Amino acid sequence: MADVVSDFVTVLSQAAAAYRGEKATRPSAEILVQALLAAEKTAKQQRLNYGFESLLGKWRLCFATGTKKVRERGGIVLGKGLYVPKFVTIHISFNANLQQNLDKGEIANQVELFPLLLKLTGPIQYQGKKNLLAFDFHNMLISLFGRVVYNNKIRSGKVESEDFYSQPIAKLPFFAFFIVTEDFIAARGRGGGLALWIREN
Prior knowledge:
alpha+beta; Lipocalin; 8-stranded antiparallel β-barrel
């Protein structure tokens, strides 16, 4: 595991390339989790900061871990993690709201399992010093065979759109990004799970 820790960028790059179908050996889930943890530790130690503009665009989820609560430890532990099956397409996209502020914009989270498509959208705010991107979903769209069957506001949003930017990030769902490259991004969610996305062209 020492090699994984020292060369996590190579492992993450291999995972991204293999998921795209390029000629690369796909790292095992265990090795990929270790690489993600090493990247997270490095970002904290070196106090790395990533600009909001580097997150903008469309990203495809390729790997994620769950978490499970452990009573005796008084916290959570990571699940094993898994590569997202290719027949399910999960995208996340971030767009800046240039009229307001460079660190504000919109998130879209889309899951597609033909013929069904589910898309959630809402506002985002980014704290560059901590690489924290807070979000809240306010709208849901569902389409079947390319035809929209539902498109409306949802009540699951924590706060109304106009109040979102005045909320402390700690009270909102968020991603804490710890590695951001041209090719892939990775973050820990508020629930404790890790995720790796690759850029969609």
